[in-house]
Amino acid sequence: MKLAVIGLGMASKPHLAALKLLADQIEVVGLYSRSESRRAAMAAETGWPAFDSLQAVANSDAQVVIVITPPNARAELVQTLGAAGKAILMEKPVERDLARAKALVETCEGFGVPLGIVLQHRYRAGAEALADLMASGRAGKVLMARVSLPWWRDQGYYDTPGRGTLDMDGGGVLITQAIHVLDLMLSLAGPVAEVMALTGKTPLHQMETEDFAAAGLRFENGAVGSVVATTAAYPGGAETLELECTHVALKLEAGALTLHWRNGQTETVGEVTGTGGGGDPMDFPCDWHRDLITDFAARVQAGQAPRVSGRDALRVHRLIDAIERSARTRAIAQVEAEA
What we know:
Structural class: alpha/beta
Number of domains: 2
InterPro entries: Gfo/Idh/MocA-like_OxRdtase_N (IPR000683), Gfo/Idh/MocA_Oxidoreductase (IPR052515), GFO_IDH_MocA-like_dom (IPR055170), NAD(P)-bd_dom_sf (IPR036291)
CATH topology of the largest domain: Dihydrodipicolinate Reductase, domain 2
GO molecular function: nucleotide binding
Organism: Actibacterium mucosum KCTC 23349
Mean pLDDT: 96
Number of strands: 14
Strand content: 15-25%
Number of helices: 10
Low-confidence stretches: none
Protein name: Oxidoreductase
Pfam families: GFO_IDH_MocA, GFO_IDH_MocA_C3
Shape: globular
CATH superfamily of the largest domain: Dihydrodipicolinate Reductase, domain 2
């Protein structure tokens, strides 16, 4: 499998580390960044060649292109790569808002190219075990879901040009940090029907968008839930997803799953790892990215749909859109139904 990488900023670190581990399976044919100095430096550091233009990537023999640019830099990339028939694996979020995300997904579908989204929390050992348990039916029905993301970002993080702005990122803690655990929640508990939310900005940050969000949820299956997410919780802690089910109470914390069966038995799966929830956003292993890239490449070769496709990722975009609408209007907001 031949692969190219576009985007060499902070978020590329775990991708590049994972690709080094996959050198016996995947050939990296080149790297590209709009910054000539950055692509030269990364080519020297990694030993992989650098492309001098987007068109050069499109004209290459890469079968897969990983796109790790900010959300506002993707429309042209996807159009060019899609027209060249490249399978695209793209960092979350899909785009800055739901409308743009839909348009990008439809662009890839129009070209008939696979679009996978990097939502790597699904590939943690505890999350995999939780998904298997829910699929088996042993847990029973989901009755309540609770999400907590007490992360920390210092002001230096938001002083990076464009960081936490509507124009570049599309929002704050919801679309940039909480999107991972919200996606995981939806994949396990099913779609949300309506939300009542509050978002805001604490005095701890000078930024355009929210560093705090809280929401009450009502799922389509009748379950209730809550979300509290922030990047103002110093020094930062592990995110948790808790599911109260008919037969078991489940807690997934930083990749470690604890099962409290209602007959009194307790089980644990996985282990606590770095999450990127503290001062260093990249303080986590590259294992999840390695497994995600491996899975995407294998599915492309087999002609199968990505495990987390662009259309799949629209579910979490719909939820974030509803939370933002509810916070703006100070009223219950319906989550847009899937087409």
